[in-house]
């Protein structure tokens, strides 16, 4: 099968997530990276492209969108891996030209941008994929399938958290700078950066979204303009409740994304730092340790697993699963076929939901943690 | 050293925590149980006393208080291990007569009772000890000492939870019945039963109490009159924040009491189910696993440890530490001496604090999780 | 029920395990310690006895045995908690006089002593209990019952180890001195001190003993006369195989006693440092986490459990189980009744087996790890 | 940089490790797979090649070696992923023609083949890389560097094991069939398949190899011709000792490769199933949890890490590290440069060592576990 021709916006020298996208795109051999506008600085863009052996390098994503759209061998899809405020612009340019967009989260920096992007995306015949990559973990797929099958009974509790510690002190770095700058990050600090992951993961696994939330936000590090810690209570339609904690100032936590879901008949517990294990407790029975691809693995988990149980798959494999799901969707789309059964990836509505989450938290926090509908 | 003569109210046949108190009292050889009013049912009280070989059995705690106070060899202290609504009555009777009271938590069922009890306790020359037993764990003492010494820097975050699953479905048992009955349990269900432990533990370790809380309470099991799940956000004076989760409907959790505290310089993490380990992360350094009595153990932890590291101590040892601390206090008190340095146990003010916590949560919940001062 | 009158030999000021025995005897209220010859030094013996409030203190165990045997209220049982070379002497004195002996392990320092003791014990009407205390853990009882019930199928593999680190460097202390002295410790260093525990635990759980072993012994610390590390391969009748590792020079191991047993149908895994968990894998199914007294707990484990699951019991509770089992046996014995069903404790034959283990390892090691029948 | 042109022998439809090699080769973008003799069955070879989009498919590896060597754009390296008895043949063909060989372990099925291969490899100017992939894990590099730097002091103990359970019962599958067939697997069953990994890992990390071993081998499953369990004791020059356990019949173990190394000054402990954590205990201090790329990570580990700590890397990333190290070596080699500093991969001598290990174990087992020099 021919690899999908992929472009990239952002991700040049010194950038973080661009390199991850490149590995993710490569891992299953579904994509060939051929073009890029890798940096806001044209010189750096060119140097980065040369280093990566890209066929075509552009100074600017507008130029890139225009020219690639015109080529017969132009890119079919583009990865957008720029800071939050630089998502909507490129996404719109490419979508308008029918080029599929694989964009990192959060959707945009502002709700206004999100709405503009949504309008274009809905009008475009191209696909929009949002890399909430944790939904690519096989055991997250397993958890989702188990809950959908009713293994937990009616859901009651969703305890989700994403704790980090790298912003415990004031840091000056490429990555920290824009994340703590409202103009580039948006309304949310930790909220947008990792809170949206927690929010999305809970929704993906449980199949439900809160109808109201109450948020208490803090900026612990002196001088920090955005939240570095978010405490949020959640209320779901039907009476389930939840708690969401997002923090970048919790020493000892690297990427502590943890999800626990409890229902009338059982519970599920999962931690991102050791993603190959999922705890399942049918109420009244011993806890069972489900392993990726091991005994008890469901087809939903197996189809996104590559190696036998006991051989750990990690962050990059989960990320690659999103890329490969996107490839399946793109191929079907280009062949005029329906999305193949079972293919799953976060998209526009997840992005909008994340934006609403951030906005609702900020609004709630301003109103002293009043309940706000996201 | 002569053992302290101890009496007991409650804890007869079929009761739960009375037996734990008896072991805790016995473990370090500091007490001899000699008298009891072990049940509300006189026949069962007598049968229970005979089984335990008690010297003196009473039909009723009032009778017991009156008679024991008159004997030369009467009890010096009494353990109160009855349901919540039956704490204040006996406690007052014994305190009035100068008999030390070791009472289980929560302090009482109602705030009115708590106030009455407080008045008597303050007037009494006898001691009042509240068995928030988790404060007896050596590594909890260690955590407290480390925080007091500034090892975490200024505190920012307190994440505490106590999750159980035994009330996931409607249960009919001696223990479940009164716990779900407002007349005997008080305003709180899970809140009073385990939430107070979480609340107390956080306060004991951090040395600080929230100035405001916002609570969302649920009763998931149909027909349940009291909360079986509590989600609470916490605000501390000085800006620290916290989350408290108490649940009795989380399948897969037996006694999941967990505390995580983060400050500007480091973090501490502890779990009750494996209490011989404490995680300490000085920010920017690898996590360290502190073990009870192991390398790095502070005197505060060592003085309440009995065996070398790697030989686990558990719930009963922690509980016994409260009893033995109480014994030290009682002996000093009876000798007219000051409390020996380092002796620590929860008392009246902790009990009042717990009652305020429950009341504030209930009030907040009624007001749609508004912030309430506890 | 009247407590059993207990005496103690050894365990005076500065001693280690004596205090543990006292707590273990006390925990379930089955014993009253009334007499002792607590030290080889009469002054220290007296001071220690006074501190503990013992009714009767003796200069010497012979004197104690003679006098106690003559008293109407003399001790019914004696705990022997002296160094290894000082087990046989007192044990024989008390057994001869019909006083039950609760002796710590290993049985004796030499095989000659063991044989002498065995002869007396077999002739005595009194009971002999050996405190291989790890057999008192509830989940060890569970494992034994599961294997006996065939849950693992035919056994194939026994992987057992006991790793410590406290003798990584040369240490001078009361406890280290005699343990590294062949005259007081016997043929084995780590072998006798902790290897016998591992050996005994494997036998207790699996119900089988090796017919041959091959041992490689080391003394890593310069100047050490006895082994501080033992590597042993095991062959069982019927073809099962095993490995036993005992070490006191493995930095990072406090009391790393671990047992894994595998059969044709499943596996069991357990670690002493967190003894409230037992992993059970029926072949081809997900691992199950059995907790002490939790879902799936068998009667054999429940009868030696005190508190609900999730409230950890530890080393002292396991040790106390041996004492309480012994009390049941002693009471039945004194009432002329058969041993109550289910009562289990290590005794003379386990002690002899341990001595054979040590001797066989030493002999094998001398013959360059040749196979030797223990 | 141009990708290295890679070929593959084996790894067609239904094969296991070939797909892993392809991902590993792709992950860092260093290779392009262009040719293959993917199966012993020419039709399946062709179908497999078509599926993978290979430019050139061959019926037979001899044909492939001959033709590729002649092309200007012929492959520069070949991956050999056939069963053990089919390593030497292709390896020799390609090495003879100056094509670099990346061969899976064990080196060959027989010692005779190994010697033939060694001769050719030594004479060839091409490189020979053996995919003992676990040496690619970043924290294994860290452990190796720490030991080399003396962080553990003089080494004393090496406890290594690789436990699986998939052969607990008789299985009929492509993978099981040849592994239990002496003609295709060689002298060892579990020994060759996973024992060699354990052996290699211990050597890689400690920098030393045993001078003698004593092995007890079993075939627990009726009718099995080769060992499915190996118990081995190890003696190192200078007095260190070790134990190696390899088993494919231990229910509950998926890929339980675990390494523990202890020295006079400290200990290191690592488990493959959660490879992003390494325990380090400096003797007398609390255990430290080193995480991949986290605080305390050494350059040796960082250079083979891709993502920040807390984002797990797994089996495929470790495998890819071997491929990428090989790419660095190949590029240097083709440029006539020395191997870049720090580049590490297993090679011929490791393969020979593994063969010696298997042979020595088998010989020792035949001589009733006598000591044999590997
Ligand atoms: N899915 C995840 O887990 C995850 C993890 C990290 C980051 N992210 C998201 O990825 C995005 C990038 O984050 P990062 O940490 O890699 O940031 P970064 O600062 O490391 O990299 C951003 C890159 O974008 C480039 N850039 C900025 N403006 C540009 C423009 N106009 N044209 C071309 N390039 C431009 C910069 O030069 C830089 O190379 C953010 O939206 C972030 O939220 C997601
Ligand atoms: N510290 C802890 O961890 C912990 C754990 C469990 C229970 N508790 C507390 O201990 C108390 C008892 O709980 P429990 O689970 O043992 O309850 P339980 O129902 O098992 O036992 C209560 C006992 O009190 C007796 N009783 C009731 N009224 C009496 C009266 N007037 N006079 C004498 N006896 C009377 C009952 O007969 C019964 O024996 C509660 O306040 C509970 O909150 C604390
Ligand atoms: N079951 C276990 O887990 C465990 C743990 C530790 C020790 N032990 C065993 O317990 C025994 C004691 O070990 P320890 O560590 O407590 O040793 P220790 O040196 O701390 O104490 C030994 C005590 O015996 C006393 N003693 C010696 N000779 C005596 C005599 N003739 N009469 C009276 N007292 C005498 C000493 O004065 C000292 O008080 C050993 O056999 C050891 O193997 C068992
Ligand atoms: N590094 C590791 O962790 C690891 C893991 C698994 C396997 N391995 C090793 O990889 C090798 C293959 O194992 P596997 O499990 O993938 O086996 P497999 O049976 O799944 O695959 C072997 C493949 O080789 C092909 N083959 C056989 N003879 C051939 C020939 N003459 N020409 C071309 N193709 C031929 C077969 O058709 C098949 O596709 C073995 O040596 C094994 O030890 C290593």
- Main sheet properties of chain A: 8 strands, mixed
Category from helices, strands and their pairing of chain A: alpha/beta
Tertiary shape of chain A: globular
Strand order of the largest sheet of chain A: 8-9-10-7-11-12-13-14
Any idea of the CATH topology of the largest domain in chain A? Dihydrodipicolinate Reductase, domain 2
Helix count from the secondary structure assignment of chain A: 12
Annotated CATH homologous superfamily of the largest domain in chain A: Dihydrodipicolinate Reductase, domain 2
Mean pLDDT of chain A: 97
InterPro entries (chains A, B, C, D): Gfo/Idh/MocA-like_OxRdtase_N, Gfo/Idh/MocA_oxidoreduct, GFO_IDH_MocA-like_dom, NAD(P)-bd_dom_sf
Domain Gfo/Idh/MocA-like oxidoreductase N-terminal (chains A, B, C, D): 4-130
Organism (chains A, B, C, D): Gemmobacter caeni
GO molecular function (chains A, B, C, D): nucleotide binding
How is this structure best summarized?
Four copies of one chain form a homotetramer. Chain A has helices at residues 17-27, 42-52, 61-70, 88-96, 111-123, 138-148, 174-179, 182-185, 190-206, 299-302, 315-334, 348-366; strands at 4-9, 31-37, 56-57, 77-80, 100-103, 128-130, 155-163, 212-218, 229-235, 241-247, 256-263, 266-271, 277-282, 287-291. Chain A is of the alpha/beta class.
Features:
alpha/beta; 374 residues; 12 helices; six-stranded parallel β-sheet; homotetramer; 36% helix; 22% strand; eight-stranded mixed β-sheet; Rossmann fold; binds nicotinamide-adenine-dinucleotide; Dihydrodipicolinate Reductase, domain 2; 2 domains
């Amino acid at each position: 099968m021919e690899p999908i021709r992929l472009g990239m916006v952002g991700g040049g020298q010194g950038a973080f997530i661009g390199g991850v996208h490149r590995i993710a795109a490569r891992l299953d051999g579904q994509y060939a990276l051929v073009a890029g506008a890798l940096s806001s600085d044209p010189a750096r863009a060119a140097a980065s492209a040369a280093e990566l052996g890209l066929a075509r390098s552009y100074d600017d994503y507008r130029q890139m969108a225009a020219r690639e759209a015109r080529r017969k061998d132009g890119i079919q899809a583009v990865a957008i891996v720029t800071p939050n405020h630089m998502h909507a612009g490129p996404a719109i340019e490419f979508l308008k030209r029918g080029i599929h967009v694989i964009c990192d989260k959060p959707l945009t920096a502002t709700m206004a941008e999100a709405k503009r992007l949504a309008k274009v995306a809905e009008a475009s015949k191209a696909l929009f994929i949002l890399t909430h990559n944790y939904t690519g973990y096989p055991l997250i797929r397993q958890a989702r399938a188990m809950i959908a099958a009713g293994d937990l009974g009616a859901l009651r509790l969703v305890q989700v958290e994403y704790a980090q510690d790298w912003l415990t002190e004031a840091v000056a770095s490429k990555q920290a700078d824009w994340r703590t700058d409202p103009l580039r990050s948006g309304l949310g600090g930790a909220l947008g950066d990792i809170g949206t992951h927690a929010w999305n993961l809970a929704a993906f696994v449980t199949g439900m979204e809160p109808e109201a939330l109450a948020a208490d936000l803090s900026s612990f590090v002196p001088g920090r303009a955005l939240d570095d810690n978010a405490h949020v209570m959640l209320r779901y339609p039907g009476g389930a409740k939840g708690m969401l904690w997002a923090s970048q100032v919790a020493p000892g936590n690297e990427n502590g994304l943890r999800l626990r879901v409890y229902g009338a008949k059982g519970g599920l517990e999962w931690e991102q730092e050791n993603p190959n294990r999922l705890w399942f407790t049918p109420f009244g029975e011993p806890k069972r340790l489900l392993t990726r691809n091991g005994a008890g693995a469901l087809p939903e988990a197996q189809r996104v697993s590559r190696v036998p149980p006991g051989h750990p798959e990690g962050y990059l494999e989960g990320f690659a699963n999103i890329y490969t799901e996107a490839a399946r969707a793109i191929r079907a789309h280009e062949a005029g076929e329906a999305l193949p059964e079972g293919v799953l990836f976060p998209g526009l509505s997840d992005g909008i939901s994340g934006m609403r989450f951030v906005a609702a938290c900020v609004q709630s926090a301003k109103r002293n943690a009043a309940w706000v509908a996201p």
